Amino acid sequence: MAPDMLSLERARLWLKLTRSHGIARRYFVVNGFDGALTMLGLIMGFRVSGASDLGLVLNACLGAAIALGVSGVSSAYVSEAAERRKALSELEDAMAKDLGGSAHGRAAHWVPLLIALVNGAAPLLISLFILSPLLLVRAGMVLPWSPLLLALGCAFFSIFLLGVFLGSVSGQHWLRSGLQTLLIALITVGLVLLLE
Fold first, then answer.
1. How far, CA to CA in Å, does 102 sit from each of 47, 109, 115?
2. Do 114 and 11 touch, CB atoms closer than 8 A?
3. How far apart are the first and last CA of the chain?
4. Exposed e or buried b for every residue in 16-25, given b needs 16+ CB within 10 A?
5. Within 13 Å, how many C-alpha atoms sit on residue 143's CB side?
6. Domain boundary assignment for the chain
């Protein structure tokens, strides 16, 4: 394997060297939450407007999901690459040594990409999960309930799970944390219903 090829062990080492585990976790939650709430808002908006063309709903939601993913990757990469270059430069100045070929240098190169992938993948994957009922209907599957209602259920479930994850990270009780994020989802639904 080439020295700069990405492996899981190297990725863990680079995240540890740069102390970026927390950053990646925050990006996952923040952008995952953005993706889930965006899909929730879009689906509620279509439901309130009485849209019946599932193809239109699905295409609009997929467009938003792709935009969130691309935005997440590009914004995180640009900002994290600048931060890693700055941190590496400061370390090189302190050590009076070029660290480009070291583990720190490779981490400065790869960590922004890893964080960017997490930041972009979170809203895209969560959005695709939420949209799965619509995708199944488009594929010809017959569902027992309205695909929009099932998509809303998937959105609430995703948002609850993100809250549970946050609770496990912070040491807060998982149910309380999950219910807090569900409350945010309900407030979002309430605000969309005001459009009616």
1. 54, 11, 20
2. yes
3. 58
4. eebebeebbe
5. 15
6. 8-193
For residue range 111-154, what is the model confidence (pLDDT) as tens digits?
Answer: 888 889 999 999 999 999 999 999 999 999 999 999 999 999 99
What the block records as the tokens of 123 is 């809203």
Q: Which of 9, 36, 63 is nearest to 122 (CA)?
A: 36
User: For the segment 41-99, what is each residue's pLDDT rounded down to a tens digit?
Assistant: 999 999 888 877 889 999 999 999 999 999 999 998 898 888 767 876 776 677 767 66
17 vs 54, higher pLDDT: 54
**pTM (2 decimals)?**
0.83
Longest dimension (CA), the chain: 67
DSSP notation for 7-63: -HHHHHHHHHHTT-HHHHHHHHHHHHHHHHHHHHHHHHHHHHHT---HHHHHHHHHH
